TrEMBL record:
<dbReference type="InterPro" id="IPR010093">
    <property type="entry name" value="SinI_DNA-bd"/>
</dbReference>
<dbReference type="InterPro" id="IPR041657">
    <property type="entry name" value="HTH_17"/>
</dbReference>
<protein>
    <submittedName>
        <fullName>Excisionase</fullName>
    </submittedName>
</protein>
<dbReference type="GO" id="GO:0003677">
    <property type="term" value="F:DNA binding"/>
</dbReference>
<feature type="domain" description="Helix-turn-helix">
    <location>
        <begin position="6"/>
        <end position="54"/>
    </location>
</feature>
<dbReference type="Pfam" id="PF12728">
    <property type="entry name" value="HTH_17"/>
</dbReference>
Length: 60
């Protein structure tokens, strides 16, 4: 996964093993940054990695 790669919501769902509504909840709560291009939601791969890192630190 490259830093500049933009992921779709289904991509993030598969990588985090989460459901669609959970991913959108993370986006809505700003815990997972995203951008909108036209009508498409995209999540930077870097943001997914940072989310995982933050969750691991919080769990420790």
């Amino acid at each position: 996964m490259r830093d500049d790669e933009l992921l779709t919501v289904p991509d993030v769902m598969a990588r985090l093993k989460l459901g669609r509504s959970t991913v959108y909840d993370l986006i809505r709560s700003r815990r997972l940054p995203s951008i909108t291009i036209g009508r498409c939601r995209r999540i930077p791969a870097r943001a997914v990695r940072e989310y995982i890192t933050n969750e691991l630190e919080a769990a420790a």
